[in-house]
User: Which sequence fits this backbone?
């Protein structure tokens, strides 16, 4: 039986790059939004690796592998917490984080070698470019793009205002 009274969650796409210090700072807002809305807000990680960060593309692929193994967000948060270490150490750091979280690091290594997640990362990046994403973090909610790469100030409040309106209307 379909329960039509259960509203669909509001979708918040977060265009992120795992070697980006601004994305690490954005996690505080993401955690606050999750705490406020729970399952009424679906925060979706979208990959947008930047050329200036040499290990960002591998990190995006590793995040896809983490999601496949059931540890997506914890992995993303752990990698973002170590952006400096990622910059210095690259793939060994990505594998170390996987091991620390109890994920299959050997499978991560294989995934990075065989490129099984390249298409997912490329598709996210292409879609981001198509909608005007130029840096990270960038949020998209209800078709509105909010650029957090310039400043995070006021973004959470703007996202909350849009989410509140959508949830009140019942039309996410």
Assistant:
């Amino acid at each position: 039986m379909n329960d039509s009274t259960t509203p669909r969650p509001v979708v918040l796409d977060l265009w992120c790059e795992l070697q980006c210090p601004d994305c690490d700072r954005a996690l505080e807002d993401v955690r606050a939004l999750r705490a406020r809305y729970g399952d009424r807000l679906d925060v979706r990680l979208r990959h947008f690796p930047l050329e200036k960060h040499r290990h960002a593309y591998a990190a995006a692929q590793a995040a896809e592998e983490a999601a496949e193994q059931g540890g997506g967000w914890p992995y993303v948060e752990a990698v973002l917490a170590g952006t400096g270490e990622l910059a210095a150490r690259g793939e060994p750091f990505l594998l170390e984080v996987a091991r620390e979280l109890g994920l299959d690091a050997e499978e991560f290594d294989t995934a990075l070698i065989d490129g099984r997640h390249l298409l997912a990362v490329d598709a996210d990046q292409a879609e981001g470019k198509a909608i005007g994403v130029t840096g990270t973090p960038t949020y998209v909610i209800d078709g509105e793009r909010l650029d957090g790469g310039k400043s995070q100030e006021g973004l959470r409040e703007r996202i909350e205002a849009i989410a509140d309106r959508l949830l009140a209307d019942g039309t996410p």
